[in-house]
């Protein structure tokens, strides 16, 4: 049987490597989930990529909790906890309510296109 204390010590001793892996993979996998939702990909593909992204964000949250267990309360721990939790919520949302997330992504795209149109108008006048 595995000892949780050993796993927590490993997590804290290799924090730099773990964070250097988890932060970009977490962000890229969650971005890929959002792209798949925006492109209206099949639910099986969304579930697969969202599952991987949820794994990364869940591991990040557990990694941060190992620091909280020993009393390390610093800004980076809260930032990583916020990042992991936000990505986890987005991935759960993508699986549970893909239509509402697709609508919000569409509204954001329209808003960005509107802003870019204004910038181009000002730039050429």
Structural class: mainly alpha
The tally of strands reads 0
Main β sheet profile:
none
How many domains make up the coordinates? 1
| Low-confidence blocks of residues | none
- The best one-word shape is elongated
Q: What percent of residues adopt helix (DSSP H or I)?
A: over 70%
Number of helices: 5
Mean pLDDT level: 91
Element-by-element helix/strand order: HHHHH
What brief labels describe this structure?
mainly alpha, 0% strand, 125 residues, 5 helices, elongated
Topology:
Blueprint (H helix, E strand, L loop, with lengths): L3 H10 L1 H24 L4 H27 L5 H22 L1 H27 L1
Structural summary, described in words:
It contains 5 helices and no strands. Helix 3 runs antiparallel to helix 4. It is elongated. With 125 residues, the chain is mainly α. The chain has one domain. The model has no long low-confidence stretch (mean pLDDT 91). Keywords: Membrane, Transmembrane, Transmembrane helix.
In short:
The chain is mostly helical and 125 residues long. Helix content is 88%, strand content 0%. It is built from five helices and no strands.
